[in-house]
């Protein structure tokens, strides 16, 4: 073997070099101690709440004492589940938790997965049948794209982000700030109408073939909220035979929207009009894992056909206990003060960022913030120098991450500010002061806003493209 490695290593190294030249190389990093978190998805800071930690440890101690008293031949495992749920990894505890969570979210049934990504891939890869269609928001999460690729659906069509009706109201921008531009494309209504045309259209009109519509409750890169009522109305209007099935990824809306964090679907009273929901427990819930909320029949079907459930070791007791602990905290209303504080932080952060822009009047390519009041804890701050701004904030003790292409389209680069119930007003003020200090230096220097010549002259990666050419988001 040469010092340069195998021929395959050399090919992989050249592909990494290409990404490095475009300033797009991903790396694993750790957060320095003492850094203020404005990056993670733990919006309610549940995992750091002492009462939650104590309740979780109490569950573990109770289970450990019960296990110690049991006969060795019947002693349950606390460290691992022992296998797939279809073999030895299932438990009465897991099934009871599924029933509890389904009832909490107003669903008939639920099925746990090891992650929300596994839930999305499992659901979309096995449910659509040959001849069916999947219609998805152009900004749908990468895990849904992966499931769509593996599905047997005959048609896979995107619609313009959150544009529902053909006479869609375009989001306007004005003054010192601007909303991010939506990817070009047709509205949901136009895409659904197109399915009803042509030789195969009669099969969709009659209900012989099904259409699955994939959207998110809250989109993780822009923090915007899906117009779910319009989406459901549009689907029911266009597909009058009831063969339109809306699937909502609630990973970023669970815990934040709805009574006691039940999610956006519950907040809007759409439980009976949305066919399935995918929950993610790694965001506001503060744990790990995912779940599909669905009918009892769909649950049985997933147990038989969802490969991401069948061919993986099931979650161990500590993971299940952490989910139950967090949901107890939510269901009893203990998270309400945290959510109230979080909403105040969101309003104040947005106000301070707009005020900073008003004071300095930066060109839009240097820095811009949407004038629209945020409805989620995610606030994108757009800049063509996201790495430079993020590095400055990090040196000042505030962890924010740069978001660049291909996670977002070129021209939509930003830092993403994620707020948490554990943040303070003083920390918010410090972050905005750091952003403003950076902005002052940039404007005084008159520096050009290209992050690098290589980034400006970016060309398409020549590696095989498995995903559709639409913007495909990754969770950070």
TrEMBL record:
Keyword tRNA-binding part of the UniProt annotation: no
Domain Aminotransferase class I/classII large: 36-434
Cofactor needs: pyridoxal 5'-phosphate
Pfam families (UniProt xref): Aminotran_1_2
InterPro entries (alphabetical): Aminotransferase_I/II_large (IPR004839), AON_synthase_class-II (IPR050087), PyrdxlP-dep_Trfase (IPR015424), PyrdxlP-dep_Trfase_major (IPR015421), PyrdxlP-dep_Trfase_small (IPR015422)
Annotated region described as Disordered, given as residue ranges: 453-476
Keyword tags: Pyridoxal phosphate, Transferase
Name under which the protein is recorded: Pyridoxal phosphate-dependent transferase
